[in-house]
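4.2 Preliminary Data

To establish feasibility before requesting continued support, the project team ran the inverse folding procedure on a target of 374 residues. The structure was first converted into the token representation described in Section 3, and no sequence information of any kind was made available to the design step. The complete token record follows.
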């Protein structure tokens, strides 16, 4: 029996009970709907953020023999074959700092360059800009000078060139000169003047008697020796005893880097690039000498508009080791040299390497030497 209080009827009581039940049900429906909507939203966001192959890969490199893995990979189609539907576009640079600027600006996604510009970019960005994902070439850099210069003592007051301020050869020259007791400054002043100069212009200036020497990568060191009468004062391979890398005479000249954001968004594209890169390095290490020289020359003709004389390319190739190993153990010294040269700030470079994809596609166990992932 329903109890009726004074002034109240049974009907309003039942009505309020029904309304309360409906309200509770509506709240539950809204809550369930919110959960469903949230789940759908998260799934949609996850799908939107899922890594996908890039529509385009923009690759930078130099028209140097030390960049032969890039030259061969492009000319023989190794990159295009592995990239599949990803369009490949390229840009040629003269030196690493310019390539880094392009990468930071989004003009290229990956690049072949020397280790010191890569270190500098990593340091300046607090580790956010680039990852080193493979080696490409070791060796192939020399200080070549006028015939009358016979020792470091003869360099005081002389003018030398490097490809670009802060580039790998620029840092190597400044570090070596410091070891000889000379002071150099980034503005070109000092006991020995250093003028960062485009490689082709360096050859012309040396021929015209306006430069006393230059620390250069191949083929430019060989061109000054064979075409301009220079002689080798320092072969950089003699400065590396192997204690840092386990490979005497080898030092990183060319590496492959990638923009970190691009790599995170398109890991499959990075793997495809590395597969093409590994194919190119393998080809360079197995092809007959004549085939290798002819192929590199054809690629140089395509990218730089001119092939090299046979003696220049032969001498260049004798000085270079092509390898996917970036020789990570040498990087603390490279950083130290850059700091002492005044082109890099002291910093922790742990994390600069990400060799996981390289080791996956090659089946190797190349070490990051504690400076990243391998």
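Position-by-position output of the design step:
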């Amino acid at each position: 029996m329903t109890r009726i209080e004074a002034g109240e009827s049974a009907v309003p009581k039942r009505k309020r009970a029904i309304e309360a039940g409906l309200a509770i049900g509506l709240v539950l429906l809204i809550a369930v709907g919110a959960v469903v909507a949230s789940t759908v939203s998260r799934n949609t966001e996850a799908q939107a953020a899922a890594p996908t192959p890039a529509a385009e890969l923009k690759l930078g490199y130099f028209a140097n023999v030390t960049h032969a893995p890039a030259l061969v990979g492009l000319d023989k189609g190794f990159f295009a074959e592995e990239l599949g539907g990803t369009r490949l576009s390229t840009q040629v640079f003269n030196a690493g700092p310019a390539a880094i600027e392009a990468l930071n600006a989004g003009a290229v996604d990956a690049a072949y360059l020397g280790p010191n510009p890569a270190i500098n970019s990593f340091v300046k960005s607090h580790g956010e800009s680039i990852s080193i994902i493979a080696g490409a070439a070791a060796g192939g850099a020399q200080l070549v000078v006028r015939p009358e210069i016979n020792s470091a003592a003869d360099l005081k007051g002389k003018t030398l060139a490097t490809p670009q301020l802060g580039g790998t050869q620029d840092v190597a020259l400044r570090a070596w000169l410091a070891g000889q007791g000379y002071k150099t400054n980034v503005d070109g002043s000092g006991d020995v003047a250093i003028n960062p100069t485009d490689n082709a212009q360096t050859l012309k200036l040396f021929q015209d008697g306006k430069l006393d020497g230059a620390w250069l990568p191949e083929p430019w060191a060989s061109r000054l020796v064979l075409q301009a009468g220079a002689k080798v004062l320092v072969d950089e391979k003699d400065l590396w005893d192997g204690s840092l890398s386990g490979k005497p005479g080898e030092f990183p000249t060319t590496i492959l880097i990638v923009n970190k954001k691009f790599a995170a968004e398109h890991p499959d594209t990075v793997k495809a690039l590395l597969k093409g890169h590994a194919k190119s390095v393998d080809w360079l290490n197995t092809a007959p000498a004549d085939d290798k020289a002819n192929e590199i020359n054809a690629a140089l003709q395509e990218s730089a508009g001119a092939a090299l004389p046979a003696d220049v390319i032969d001498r260049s190739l004798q000085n270079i080791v092509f390898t996917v190993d970036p020789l990570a153990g040498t990087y603390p010294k490279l950083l130290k040299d850059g700091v002492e040269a005044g082109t890099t700030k002291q910093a922790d470079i742990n994390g600069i390497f990400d060799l996981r994809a390289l080791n996956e596609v090659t089946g190797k166990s190349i070490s990051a030497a504690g400076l990243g992932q391998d």
